[in-house]
Design a protein that fits this description.
The complex is a heterodimer of chains A (64) and B (458). Chain A has a domain of 42 residues. Chain A is built from two helices and no strands. Chain B has three domains: 74 residues, no CATH class; 159 residues; 205 residues, Rossmann fold, CATH 3.40.50. In chain B, 39% of the residues lie in helices and 18% in strands. Chain B is built from 16 helices and 16 strands. Classes of the chains: A mainly alpha (64), B alpha/beta (458).
């Protein structure tokens, strides 16, 4: 059930896009985002740690 | 009920969310009901306010006028007008790079307000006061957690691929954007890029693997239950930002030096020419200026003394790049350097030849500068004077044009390797042909040179 919901979420919404997102682009993006999301999270935490020790505020990336 | 004559912009038809139209010479954008939810979020979330405050999105007013068509209209807005519309294939490397970075910055701000870019076309970016700005108010949609970024492919094709090709291979490959209006196909970019780009993580993933993935899944849906988390999207944008940020175009010193060495002018001659150009410019008092063959923009600056907007065209990517960097550095917001080869200026292209305007269509302007240009076209490209005069007459109401006689060392150099078939290249013939379209208001010999400057009006 969860699987079916996820599929429909991804592809029903795609139908509304007026540009072609390309299946291959979606596939790569899903893979890449999985990896880059982890790295991005680490980067944010690293900035927070650095900010704590340097006494400077973490940069605006955190608001994203 | 519809009032007035509406002219729909010929390039505004893809997105069913709305379209641009002119009525009584004023530009409006119709927003259709299908976009209502997204528009309301754009305005209520604070995203519109933040983006317009920092100059990243074109501001607009909501107006109460009848719609342009009888369709399911939600609202009409009146966007601020961009004085000169330019296209990615007319931008130098630095301009395309800045446009890419601005698109990513907008994407980041949109995500922080619960929205996302639904397209990432380079044509949605224009240069306003020297800086890139998003002109499509309807480019945002409500962000749905888990949904991948629909415009990821488009961003890579419109920005990353041409910038990588220009940076790693040859700056002239930017012209591929004129053929491929929806961006450079990634398989083409992957084929052309040198093997060493596979060792750059952002290029390996966003171009090489991206192209392979597109080929693999061609005409097949992706069978995956995985979604893209918000952090993943942020990571993707961060990765693209670092990829674009690392791409550079380094001009070697000799290229830069050429601009000073090859001008054929002494300091006195340049000073006199600048003075004449500025004086003629004041006489015309133009609101709009094109500098054709502007080189690094020296005389664009001379003629636009009080900040009159100038579009400075040149066919040399290095000259345009140099001019753009100088404009950014010196905050010269009124000068827009662009890449145009006058022997083959931008044509009307895209659907029905009307989606992107030709060079000529974007004129005429009050004043055109054609300095050290005529001999390039007349001798370098064999264009007869009468054709040249007719061309300039189509582009402007007044013209500052420089005549360079055949015995000038630059023309001697041009003719050194070819037969001189230009018997009619004389001052008399030049004046006769240009007088068919213009009146010569003033002319003056430039001190310490063989050249003459003319002010002509139609």
């Amino acid at each position: 059930m969860a699987f079916a919901t996820a599929i429909s979420l991804v592809f029903t919404e795609t139908a509304h896009a007026y540009i072609d997102p390309s299946s291959g682009s979606y596939f790569l993006q899903i893979l890449l985002a999985g990896l880059l999301g982890v790295l991005f999270t680490l980067k944010i935490y690293w900035r927070k740690i650095k900010a704590f020790f340097t006494g400077k505020g973490a940069d605006h990336d955190e608001r994203r | 009920m519809m009032n007035g004559v509406n002219t729909r912009l010929s390039g505004s038809f893809r997105d069913p969310s709305g379209f641009l139209f002119y009525r009584d010479g004023v530009l409006y954008r119709q927003i259709n009901q299908s976009y209502q939810e997204h528009y309301e979020l754009l305005m209520s979330s604070g995203l519109y306010r933040e983006l317009t405050q920092v100059g990243l999105l074109i501001p607009h007013d909501e107006v109460d006028i009848p719609p342009a068509d009888s369709g399911p209209v939600y609202r009409i807005i009146k966007p601020e007008v961009i004085p000169f519309v330019s296209y990615p294939y007319e931008w130098c490397f630095g301009q395309l790079k800045d446009a890419a970075l601005v698109t990513l910055e907008i994407q980041k701000m949109a995500l922080s307000h619960g929205m996302i870019l639904k397209d990432a076309s380079a044509f949605n970016i224009q240069f306003r006061n020297g800086r890139p700005v998003l002109i499509d108010t309807l480019s945002f949609e409500t962000y749905q957690e888990g949904r991948p970024w629909v415009a990821y492919r488009q961003f890579c094709q419109h920005f990353l691929a041409p910038l990588a090709l220009m940076s790693y291979l040859d700056i002239r490959l930017g012209q591929l954007s004129r053929i491929h209006l929806d961006g450079i196909p990634l398989d083409l970019a992957a084929t052309l890029l040198p093997k060493r780009t596979r060792f750059s993580f952002p290029l390996l993933t966003n171009i090489h693997l991206h192209a392979r993935s597109q080929r693999h899944f061609e005409a097949r849906p992706v069978n995956s239950d995985r979604q893209v988390k918000r952090q993943g999207l942020q990571g993707l944008v961060d990765n693209l930002e670092s990829a674009i940020g690392r791409l550079t175009w380094k001009l070697d010193d000799t290229v830069w030096a050429d601009y000073y060495d090859n001008t054929n002018y002494s300091d006195r001659a340049i000073a006199h020419k600048s003075e004449l150009v500025a004086g003629y410019g004041q006489k015309v008092d133009p609101k709009t200026i094109w500098d054709l063959g502007a080189n690094d923009g020296t005389f664009s600056r001379a003629v636009s003394g009080n900040g009159t907007p100038v579009v400075a065209f040149d066919f040399d990517p290095a000259a345009v790049e140099k001019n753009y960097r100088a404009c950014r550095k010196n905050h010269e917001h009124h000068i827009l350097p662009l890449l145009v080869d006058l022997t083959n200026p931008s044509p009307g292209i895209g659907w029905s030849h009307k989606e992107r305007m030709s060079f000529i269509e974007r004129g005429p302007v009050d004043l055109v500068l054609a300095l050290a240009l005529v001999h390039h076209l007349a001798i370098g490209n064999n264009v007869p004077f009468k054709y040249l005069a007719a061309f300039f007459a189509e582009t402007c109401r007044s013209l500052i044009v420089e005549f360079i006689p055949k015995h000038d060392s630059q023309i001697t150099r041009m003719l050194a390797t070819r037969e001189d078939v230009f018997d009619t290249y004389t001052r008399d013939e030049f004046e006769r042909c240009f007088s068919l379209h213009f009146s010569i208001v003033e002319k003056a010999d430039i001190t310490d040179s063989t050249r003459t400057l003319y002010l002509m009006t139609r």
